[in-house]
Each structure stands twice: as C-alpha cells, then as structure tokens.
Amino acid sequence: MLELRLVQGSLLKKVLEAIRELVNDANFDCSATGFSLQAMDSSHVALVALLLRSEGFEHYRCDRNLSMGMNLNNMAKMLRCAGNDDIITIKADDGSDTVTFMFESPNQDKIADFEMKLMDIDSEHLGIPDAEYHAIVRMPSAEFARICKDLSSIGDTVVISVTKEGVKFSTAGDIGTANIVCRQNKTVDKPEEATVIEMQEPVSLTFALRYMNSFTKATPLSETVTISLSSELPVVVEYKIADMGYIRFYLAPKIEEGEEDMKP
Amino acid sequence: MLELRLVQGSLLKKVLEAIRELVNDANFDCSATGFSLQAMDSSHVALVALLLRSEGFEHYRCDRNLSMGMNLNNMAKMLRCAGNDDIITIKADDGSDTVTFMFESPNQDKIADFEMKLMDIDSEHLGIPDAEYHAIVRMPSAEFARICKDLSSIGDTVVISVTKEGVKFSTAGDIGTANIVCRQNKTVDKPEEATVIEMQEPVSLTFALRYMNSFTKATPLSETVTISLSSELPVVVEYKIADMGYIRFYLAPKIEEGEEDMKP
Amino acid sequence: MLELRLVQGSLLKKVLEAIRELVNDANFDCSATGFSLQAMDSSHVALVALLLRSEGFEHYRCDRNLSMGMNLNNMAKMLRCAGNDDIITIKADDGSDTVTFMFESPNQDKIADFEMKLMDIDSEHLGIPDAEYHAIVRMPSAEFARICKDLSSIGDTVVISVTKEGVKFSTAGDIGTANIVCRQNKTVDKPEEATVIEMQEPVSLTFALRYMNSFTKATPLSETVTISLSSELPVVVEYKIADMGYIRFYLAPKIEEGEEDMKP
Description:
The first copy, chain A, is mostly beta strands and 264 residues long. Chain A has four helices and 18 strands. Chain A is 14% helix and 44% strand.
C-alpha cells in the first residue's frame, strides 16, 4: 500500500507543469527513499529526472517498491483541480491499476478524490554517474528563463560560454544576432539573486533553445537554477525543490554539424 | 414611455454576461413590478428567469406593460461600452422600435447614448409554480463555479448527491473518476462563506456539466448560489441580485438512458 | 559614429509598440537635433511622425546625419528583450549595414547586445507645414482609447464633432447607433484628467475607426492626447513624450462618398 501526504500540494502541481511539456507518459517510482521519475522526452533528446525524498512528505508510507505508469497530461488535468492551499495525498493499493489523488482544503470543508487509471509503460532506468563539470553556474531562475525566451525570438540555438567573469548566452538568426552577458555577482541583498560561477576551465557549448525553454517551465519551483557544463557531457539544468529534492534536465550539446547526441 | 435608471450600472452588465451564452434573443418584459426576462436556451433544455424589481432602480417609470425583443449579444456589446462606475438608464418611447441605453460617468463629464433596434420575438411565458424541494444547498458561488469547471476536465455530466452531512459532486470520464464533497459548514467568519444544507430527504441527480458551466457565468452577481433539488423537478440554480431580484436557471435532470427532459 | 543612450529605455519600447502596427519598414533619421521618423502606413492613408530630441538622451553622439532603414517588427522583437528598467543605447558605425541595441540592467549585472541588419528603404520626407486648426481637443489618452475601442464594436467610422461645450464621438452600424459626449472640464484634481477645448469654429469630421484604434497604441506614452481638427486638413492625433518630443499621427477625414484622401 502507498500513501503519500504532501501538505504543500501546490508543489506537486508545479512539478507536473514543469515536466508535462517534455514527457507524455512516464513511470513514477515509489520506494522507501522517495517518489521519483526518470524519463526521456518524446523525441529522445532530453532526459528529465525528478526526486521528492520521503522526508519531505508529512506522511510517507510505501510498503513495497512500486512503479506507476501515468499519462502526465491526464495527471496534470487532475492536479489542476487541487486548490493552491490544498493538501494532496497520493494513494494506491498493491496490485491496483488505479491511483487516487485526494485533495483536502485547508479547513477540511472540501474533500476531493480523483482516481486515475494507470498505464503499462516500458522504460529503462539510466544510471547517471556523478561527474566533474568544467563550469557550474548558479543564477536566478527567472533571469535564465527570460534569457532563453528572449533569445528564442532571434534564433534557434544558444551558445553558452562561461569564463571567470561571467556567462554569455548568444544566438543568431535571420534578423540579426544577440549576446547577453551575466556577470558574476555575489554581493546581492538576497542570496537567491546572486550569479555565482565555479569554473575549472572555460567552456562554450551550443544547445537547442526549444529544449531550454521547456526546462524553464520548472521556474516556479525554485528561485535559482544551476547549470552544469562540461564539453564531453550533457548539460544539467537543475531546479532544487526546497527540503525535498530536485528536477534535473539533461541535454546533449549540439556538435559541429548541428547533430544532436544522446539518442538511443 | 419607459425610463429605468440604475445607479449601479455594472450590475446590468453582469446580468447580460450571465445569460448571453445561454440565450441569443429574448423579450425583456417591463411592468410596474420590474424588469424581467424568461427564456429557454437555444437548444430548449435550460430555462433562465431574471427579475430586477422596480424598487431597486433609482428611477423607474413604466407607463404601460412593454415587451422588448433584444439580441443579447448586441445588447452586451453596447453595455460593455459602459464604464463600471457608470449610471445606466434604459429608455424607450411607446411604439418605438428602438431602445436607448444611456451611460453617465460618475462625474457627469461623459455621457453616451447607445440606440439599439428591437426585434419581434415569439415567446411563450411559462408559469413556474412554487414547489417543495427535497434538498436546498446554499454555498459560495465561486466554489460551485470552480467545482463545475474542475469536473468538466474529467467528464460531461455531474451527479449531485445531498445528504445531511454534505453535498457530493461526482463525474466519470475516459481518464478516470472524480468526487468532490463539500461539508455543511455554518461556523464561518463571513456568512457568504457558509455551506448550508436544508434537506427533507436525500437526493441524487445527474446533470449536463455544459449547462451548469453556463449558469456559473452569473457568479460575479452574487457571492452565494442556491441549488434546489427534487427528484421530479428541474434543478433551480439561483443567484440573488442584492436588493433587486435574482437570476434563476432551471435544468431537468438526465434520466436513466441519459435523455434530457423539459423539451417542448 | 552614432551612440544614443536612453536611461528610460522602456520609452523606446513603447514607441515601437505605438507605431509597428501601422508601419512595417521605415527610416529612422539621426541628426544633431534628435532621433526621428516619418512614415506612411502600408496602405498610404495615415502618416506617423516621431521626434525624440537629442536633449532627452543621457548621451547623444551623432557625428553626421544618418538614415537607418529598419523593419519595425524585428526592431520591436529585439526591444522586447530589454527589461523595463534597462538603459538602452543605440549604436551604429559610419557606413555599417547594422545597428546595435545595447541593454544594461540597472545594476549593470546583465548586458545584452542585439545587432540588427539595416535595410534600404525608399522614402520621401513630406514637409508638414504648421497650420491653424479650427478646434483643438486635449483629453485623457485612456479615455480617447476607450471611446475608439467602444465605438468599433458598433461601427466602422467615427464622426468627431466639436462645439464649445464638448466633443462628440458618433458612429452607426448594423446593430444601432452610438453617441459619446465628453464635456469640457478644467476643474479636475490632476491636470492630466482635464478635457480642454480650444475652438475657433465648430467642426464635424468623419474618420476610419481602424486607424484611430491604431493610433491609440501610443496611449502608454502619455496620459493626455491632443486632437487637432480642421475641415481642410488631416486630423493630428498627438501624444507628447515627456521631455523628449512626440508621436503625431495624421489622418485625412473621409469625404462625402466615403472616399479617403491623402493617397499619393
């Protein structure tokens, strides 16, 4: 039996909005450790990994490991029916082919049960080894989202170049070119407004803006985003979920001829 | 001659927005009692009844009973040109084939006259007898609107079931099922936030969500909605209009085979 | 070399939004006097004239007169990437076929360079002689925008009639007629809320609402609009740009048969 109670239910709503543009169907894996998901996007170019640790739930009961295949758009439809202040409980019986989302209003006057059919989804879990990155940029997530959106009005790809002084986002298209430089800045009033660069060596990599823009759907989950870059590895765009875990997006850089890697 | 002056003109704008989705053309009936309308929706399934009592107007002159056929979309186009703080006056000369809406800004600096052609509309006035209902639910109108909208993302019909403890709204569709229970709750800070149930006997009836969603366009008119249910009668969804009257929507329950009643 | 630095960069964004609906491609003319533009709309019915005087810029360097042909939609795409608090600098080298827009965030943490290709655009500069107008109406720009929008839901043209007492906007269409009268009113709390009429002789002229609605895209630039009317001249709809200049729109009145003038 599975019963996961999350007082801050709006967080689960935001998680779904963050990944449903990228992934249609996916298995949610429940274990004693937490509630997690790993899935390739439908074109098999980007990978998303979600972890919500069991300690972050008010109540977390998971008698045995369970993998539940869900259509994320249908799940999002149901979660959108939860109020932003509602407590959300995810429930499933062992062997059942349905999952129930229960929404309780803060004053307990309104209680909703949404029951959704589960799906069988083939998936292979990729082991993602810990890696050393050439450069790690932490910056305000809203700033990163704004930059990706702005550059999309000019071009299709972004070159991210990191030096000690700052990170540069560049694009080019039919109507012209654009360069946006964010300087390292640790002396800000609020730590979440800082732009902090940890660099082993300079790096300059090209990515499809379309995917970057999809990743930024996770912006409401965290005030900061961390971008980890290395010339031989997919970039990791990570949004921390306070006290609970993270959403990480992986995307291979575009190589010379504009080919995308990381396909199976 | 007809001259009806309504200081709170925004109320008339809200009335039009509440009914124009359901009804295209209708006769407004003016008498010494008030300004009223009764009309079937275009598919002849739902009935809407509006009453604005003469006492609610700042000035009310109606020399003889008058029935004015109007296209509600055109009327709404004109009323949308009134500012939210404007005073609205409805004027018509005896025997004229036009009606004039006059909008005065609060400081009288701006005065607008909109003259609209009237239409000949056949209509029969249904007598709606007072009835005893098995259950009457009063609840916050925004809550009811939210529930109808949420359930529409899952299914096409809603089962409304009333017991002493609360009212349950249920639906089912391809992606799963949903149940939302609102408990009776009279101990709230503001009386308009209460959910109050008067029940003679339990009742459980099925309705098309499409119509319920249309009815909730009246939500801006009142903070509460009253739903009167009886197994042999159309449901009445009523929005009171403060100090003036009401909008009432009538809809027959769906019977076993999913057939709709109340057709002519 | 050209380098124009505008601390209040949002102003340039608003200028572009004000004219890009009307004009696709246009030459911006830079001289010691200022940064200006004059262009006919694509159907050659309306004329727009912009002036941003050099004194209004924080830094203004223009070594020799320069005419830069730009696609206004592309320019607007780039300017939309500037934050509302950004400082905008327009830069061009002599003989270059590109222009650069530089956006600096207030704290200098983020610096963006957008480079746009210039175009060769044939244009003739019309001399617009100073003229005497029969009537000049100054009124809140939001009020004028609202009136043009409201009348558009009824008809296609507006008759603007000025008397000593006020200005009347009228239209007629299939569903009826509308008249909106704004009375002269100088006794207001804030001078920008006044409606002031300077009249030599009464005037009544007809204009296409479609163009009037385009002109009102400039509303965010100024709290007041000035409408100058004369029976033999195009109307001038002017939005002052504080401390810098103006946008003026010219439109010929419709004559008896509904023909438009001012075509080449």
